[in-house]
Design goal:
Strand order of the largest sheet: 13-14-15-16-20
Distance between the termini: 81 Å
Number of strands: 30
Radius of gyration: 25 Å
Length: 366
């Protein structure tokens, strides 16, 4: 009797085990194949922002997709980035105070609370800033590292550094080790540049401030390294006449704009445009066999790109009709896509443009 009971029980276990195993196998296939792959992409998604609204686009076979509007507003260009996960993007939203991880179908797949007034984001770090200025110290800043889990789809953050800096941020860029920020002081007398890493902040450059903004260009491709050279220029509030000087310094140093070794006067170059007014907008770097700076210059009131060969120390070309540069958006094999607009020209073209290295092409208007 006991043997019969044991045999029946054993048989029952085997009978139930087969469909159960099949059920779990199906669940495993579903989880690994459907939800994750459905929102993944082999193409990098590039984020860009217009009027606080987030758009993304991809590039394939030399062409870019039509920018897609994401259901996320209240963002800035400095607070969005490509993600470590290909095809996804990161965006910090001021209203929700959240860093969002958005998949290839514009769906928010993960979010984490990061409270701040302003944020600056790349795929590895997020720097946040308070809106309260301490007269003795400056604004409060915090640097977080962005961690990825669950096949890089879930994000979390870890605080690395917190401190203060007398800096009304006008530009920034990230490196493999942290972030470099530039901006005017509270008394409006100087522009300071600070390099913030996991456990420290270092002032690496300072220059006299007038009615202008300091813009930064790292010559390192990708995210840059701490040992690379940084170039800076003063961008005017309007197109009033200004000096054609750019500055260079190292993140590890402590240079002054008044130092002759930090200055490059482009007016001495034979290719310098005679109608130069001032620098106006944001610059970027690109590599086409040699690293060159691309500087937005007002020439007779119209924004041109002035290309400067860093290695040989000379202007290589002046490219007309850039349309203004509000931000560089994507560095691709075709060239650099940038957000083009001249805010001082009424009804000027506003959209995504491509700089190939030799010409500027309007791609799509928003």
């Amino acid at each position: 009797m006991n043997n019969l009971s044991d045999a029946t029980a054993k048989g029952s276990k085997n009978t139930a085990g087969c469909p159960l195993a099949v059920f779990f196998l199906c669940c495993l296939c579903f989880l690994t194949a459907c939800p994750l792959n459905a929102s993944d992409s082999n193409l990098t998604s590039y984020p860009c922002v217009k009027d606080g609204k987030l758009y993304t686009f991809t590039q394939d076979a030399g062409d870019i997709s039509e920018p897609k509007l994401c259901k996320l507003d209240g963002v800035t260009q400095k607070a969005v980035s490509v993600s470590k996960k290909k095809g996804w993007v990161l965006a910090w939203q001021q209203k929700s105070q959240e860093l969002c991880h958005i998949d290839a179908k514009q769906k928010i797949r993960s979010r984490v609370k990061v409270s701040s007034y302003l944020s600056y984001v790349n795929k590895k770090y997020i720097l946040v800033q308070t809106n309260t200025f301490d007269d003795n110290k400056g604004f409060g800043f915090k640097l977080y590292k962005i961690n990825y889990s669950w096949r890089d789809s879930k994000i979390s953050v870890k605080e690395l550094w917190s401190g203060n800096a007398d800096c009304f941020v006008s530009d920034c860029f990230f490196t493999d080790d942290g972030v470099c920020i530039a901006g005017g002081t509270q008394d409006d007398s100087k522009h300071n540049v600070f390099y913030i890493k996991e456990s420290s902040i270092h002032k690496c450059f300072s220059v006299e401030k007038n009615s202008d903004f300091l813009r930064l260009v790292s010559v390192n491709q990708g995210e840059g390294t701490a040992g690379g050279m940084v170039y800076a220029f003063l961008s005017g509030r309007d197109k009033s006449m200004a000096q054609s000087v750019i500055y260079k310094f190292n993140l590890a140093g402590s240079a002054q704009g008044s130092d002759s070794s930090s200055q490059i006067n482009l007016s001495n170059d034979s290719a310098f445009p005679s109608g130069f007014d001032c620098f106006f907008g944001y610059g970027f770097s690109m590599s086409t066999g040699k690293t060159q700076l691309v500087l937005p210059a007002s020439v007779n009131g119209i924004i041109n790109f002035l290309c400067y060969d860093c290695a040989n120390g000379k202007i290589t070309r002046v490219v007309p009709d850039a349309g203004g540069c509000l931000a560089s958006v994507a560095d691709t094999e075709n060239g650099v896509y940038y957000l083009a607009r001249d805010p001082l020209i009424e009804n000027s073209w506003y959209g995504l443009s491509l700089f190939t290295g030799t010409e500027c092409k309007k791609v799509t208007a928003f």
